Amino acid sequence: MGNDRMKESAVAGEDAMNESTGLRTAETLLRLLPVALCVVALVIMLKDSQSNDFGSLSYSDIGAFRYLVHASGICAGYSILSAVVVAIPRPSTMSRAWTFFLLDQLLTYLILSAGAISTEVVYLAYKGDASITWSQTCGSFGGFCRKATASIAITFIVTLCYAVLSLISSYRLFSKYDAPVPCNNKGIEIPAFQT
Amino acid sequence: MGNDRMKESAVAGEDAMNESTGLRTAETLLRLLPVALCVVALVIMLKDSQSNDFGSLSYSDIGAFRYLVHASGICAGYSILSAVVVAIPRPSTMSRAWTFFLLDQLLTYLILSAGAISTEVVYLAYKGDASITWSQTCGSFGGFCRKATASIAITFIVTLCYAVLSLISSYRLFSKYDAPVPCNNKGIEIPAFQT
């Protein structure tokens, strides 16, 4: 009986270990992917400039694109740092789980807002706005707008990665807490008057 | 001994119930607050139009502001619906926890992006952009820009509420799962070779 219980607990422990290793590998890869994507988005945007008869236009002329470059840089740096921290197997602490959770959320919001405001600028540059007399800049700077669009599209893939990473870091953090009533998983018998 | 254990479990259960009731009340209030804020942001934006010697300008002339109006409407509707669902005390199921988690995340992204792109438009309207010949519209339509700014500021308060709501719904969802190794809280004894 005691032997059976030990075997059972060893098997359960092994399963949990395999699951944890699998999750750690998946998370490390999911943190390395945005590094590559952010660098590509960054480089495309940094090299985005066009000169023609109408004048010259560079990414640095537009505030939203400068913000996207900074956000991509921060994101690439954080992604590589966090991938290294996650890859090293060691017991997860509460403060580490909270740090990852908060920073992942913050990065998601940062990169989403960078993508959103750049999309708005490209949209305005393509369509213009007659009521506020803003011209369709992309008519004269087609190449510039196409490169910016490519960079923004990659930024949205990064946003998706970070949405999933936020999910993983929420799981890592909150699965350490007890479930709210009545799904208390500590095995406490909940009296009937509570339900 | 058995009596002590029963008492202990009853006290733990009562504590958990009080905590759960407190959390539910806080969550309900936090879901009702965005209803009021979204409606205010919506009304300010809907009434935002100005006519003068330079012409007339309405929120509906600008895509980003139309998006903000729609996002605020959706957010107000979802907030009131979810507040009602949360307020009714009943056992939380896994599918309900997942639905809240995913919808709260989605709403956070929706309302954040609405705030971000509208901020970009107002920023451009105030500052203009000489390199792409976009004029400083707010120079002629100051009142219009001030109202839009107020509406956007409220939208960012809603974003903050939703960031906290996302945290609560993550907690509700993931605290039902077991913790990853080595913080297994099911009481399984983890063999030494795992650490």
From TrEMBL, chains A, B:
It is found in: Cell membrane. Residues 21-160 form the Casparian strip membrane protein domain. Keywords: Cell membrane, Membrane, Transmembrane, Transmembrane helix. GO terms for cellular component: plasma membrane. The chain crosses the membrane at residues 29-47, 67-88, 100-126, 150-168. The keyword Membrane applies. It is a multi-pass membrane protein. Its main location: membrane. InterPro entries: CASP/CASPL (IPR006459), CASP_dom (IPR006702). Belongs to the Casparian strip membrane proteins (CASP) family. NCBIfam families: A_tha_TIGR01569. Homodimer and heterodimers. This is CASP-like protein. The lineage of its organism: Eukaryota, Viridiplantae, Streptophyta, Embryophyta, Tracheophyta.
